[in-house]
Amino acid sequence: xxxxxxxxxxxxxxxxxxxxxxxxxxxxxxxxxxxxxxxxxxxxxxxxxxxxxxxxxxxxxxxxxxxxxxxxxxxxxxxxxxxxxxxxxxxxxxxxxxxxxxxxxxxxxxxxxxxxxxxxxxxxxxxxxxxxxxxxxxxxxxxxxxxxxxxxxxxxxxxxxxxxxxxxxxxxxxxxxxxxx
Length: 181
Fold this sequence. Notes:
Layout: E1 3-10, H1 13-20, E2 29-31, E3 38-47, H2 49-60, E4 67-79, E5 82-89, H3 95-110, E6 123-129, H4 134-144, E7 148-154, E8 156-163, E9 170-178
Antiparallel strand pairs: 1-3, 1-8, 2-6, 4-5, 4-7, 5-6, 8-9
């Protein structure tokens, strides 16, 4: 049975709680459960078991050094002007982050998965919006445009499977890849 998989960097609990506290309590804004907040490096839908095994093997071979990543600046992704996603950024063009991203994409390709063709905009989704006007979020966005959640120390990334349920997605960690010492 095919699985939905994603590769992500987890956030420390302290950062998750800091981001959860930003919730503006605006109607139609569904804040992400803090335990589900992460930085997605890649998403794959409909992955067969043998492809997942190959992906695990390729991801496990990735070597990288630990690094610090700034968590800063709140914004939105919009469709026709209406906000759909509220996110917090991870600095601009962080070289170590982009190196891991590139290596994850190469691992996926060599495991037989189609690469993501859209440009990658690294971010952490902190809320999803349904029927929310840009006007209703303007004050929140202006006051948090430069919000600084500090730095996180990236020492690992993880492969998760994701099962959609009526209560929300259930993420199961399938693999962890730690930095070299």
